[in-house]
Design goal:
The structure holds 2 protein chains of 2 kinds. Chain A is globular and about 30 Å long. Chain A is mainly alpha-helical. Chain B has 2 domains: 153 residues, Roll (Luciferase, domain 3); 146 residues, Rossmann fold, CATH 3.40.50. Helix content of chain B is 30%, strand content 22%. In chain B, β6, α7 and β7 form a beta-alpha-beta unit. Chain B is globular, with a radius of gyration of 20 Å. Classes of the chains: A mainly alpha, B alpha/beta. At the A-B interface, α2 and α3 of A face α4 and α5 of B.
């Protein structure tokens, strides 16, 4: 699976969304399921899935799917392929 | 003294005055222009638009209680992103209105402040509370919201109490077995930390020496047991090895600002974007260090509601200025204003706190 698909799957798993839910444009609190509690589980899921440690500033900055991708990229996850 | 991340405890009192005064004066005008109720209050109290302010203490303040009876906001209804509420002692609640920017700003500044105590990394986190406080995801109590806000600073969260609010000794032991050998974060409300975590740790001889404890919520419930801030620190140090303890003072009406206990303990410090002024409850004059009085809190954060200068119902005392762990004022909260002294606060004075 490509990294972008792993990211999409992580979002769907952590936020308890259906497997065909379009997550690419998601924003924090944009849907009911992405609330502050789900945010913790999203962060934990991403850390497990990509083997990274996300610091507090990034947890707070992770306000959208796009931001999450940026933060992971900064940590060396390659989304080009 | 300690690692200060991005420094929010850096300004001497003189530098702080210089930085806060124009910013707070700007906020006064901003809220006057954008909030009808606030503008009316200002004009009724002699603070017309052209008044010149020479010091932060001269700026108009609002009694914090007003947020319980008035809608005070400086953003249009359609921009409201979050409404925070506090539980009041008589059932009335403060309502604080945030737009998206204000919500983000408060989270960011809170984060920078807490990072002064724990650093940038998220630490394994033991929560001295029960998961029941965040069970209803649609409506958190003030306690639940506080816990949830702090959870951002942790990872691998473990609750010290089970859903029935009984201490979960096995969970605590499991957490310590896994994470106790390196720095970890403990958060809880002061009385919960004392009644559950401290008692359990002492009874089971648990080693909390790598912990960093952040706690808040006041001492009222502990005073009956003769536990004040100093006794609390001493007991944790003696029986659990925990010495990195930071109490903090804050309120929903000034969300994003926490006045944090310094590394050496027993004094609270103001982040660079906030300050406290102790006032004589009869004359409203600013009191010098050593004289207890009513606590006014000021902060440059509130853009969406007029909360930049608030007179609280708490009594406090400044211990010193530019003479502690961090620059600026260091102070303690002494308890609530006694009921007899007006404004109908139902809490009684409790005395002798950090």
């Amino acid at each position: 699976m490509s990294n972008i698909d792993r990211l999409r799957t992580s979002f769907r798993t952590a936020l308890d969304l259906s497997s065909d839910f379009d997550v690419d444009a998601l924003e924090y609190r944009g849907i009911e399921k992405w609330d502050s509690l789900a945010h913790m589980s999203l962060v934990a899921t991403l850390e497990d899935e990509f083997g990274v440690m996300i610091d507090t500033d990034d947890v707070i900055d992770m306000s959208s799917f796009g931001k999450a991708r940026e933060i992971l990229q900064k940590q060396g996850v390659d989304f080009a392929g | 003294m300690t690692t200060v991340v991005d420094g929010v405890f850096t300004l001497s009192q003189a530098d702080k005055q210089e930085r806060l005064l124009p910013e707070l004066a700007r906020l006064t005008e901003h809220h006057r222009r954008n909030g009808e109720a606030y503008a009316r209050i200002l004009s009724a109290t002699g603070h017309g638009p052209d008044r010149d302010y020479r010091s932060v203490a001269d700026l108009p303040w609002l009694p914090v209680r007003l947020f319980k009876t008035q809608v005070l906001k400086s953003i249009p209804d359609e921009s409201v992103f979050k409404v925070l509420t506090s539980s009041g002692t008589t059932g009335d609640v403060s309502r604080i209105f945030l737009d998206k920017e204000a919500a983000a700003a408060q989270t960011r500044m809170l984060s920078r402040t807490i990072q002064a105590a724990i650093g940038r990394q998220r630490l394994p986190m033991l929560i001295a509370d029960t998961p029941a406080v965040i069970k209803d995801r649609k409506s958190f109590s003030a306690r639940g919201a506080g816990v949830l806000g702090m959870m951002n600073f942790g990872r691998d969260h473990v609750w010290a109490l089970d859903p029935q609010e009984k201490p979960d000794v096995e969970a605590i032991k499991g957490f310590l077995a896994k994470h106790g050998g390196q720095p970890f974060l403990i958060f809880g409300f002061t009385f919960m930390v004392w009644l559950y975590l401290y008692e359990v740790a002492r009874e089971h001889k648990l080693d909390l020496s790598n912990g960093v404890l952040i706690h808040s919520g006041g001492w009222k419930k502990l005073i009956d047991q003769s536990v004040d801030n100093a006794a609390f620190r001493q007991a944790f140090a003696n029986h659990t090895g925990l010495t990195r303890i930071h109490n903090f003072y804050g309120m929903v009406e000034q969300i994003g600002v926490v006045y944090l206990e310094g590394p050496q303990g027993n004094s609270l410090y103001c982040p660079d974007f906030a300050d406290v002024i102790i006032r004589d409850p009869e004359t409203w004059q600013e009191l010098p260090p050593g004289k207890p009085g009513l606590v006014e809190v000021v902060s440059t954060l509130p853009e969406s509601y007029p909360g930049h200068a608030l007179l609280t119902e708490d009594l406090g005392v400044v211990h010193g200025i530019d003479d502690g762990d961090w620059p600026g004022k260091r102070f303690s909260i002494l308890g609530r204003l006694p009921r007899a002294e007006a404004r109908g606060c139902s809490d009684t004075f409790s005395g002798g706190q950090a």
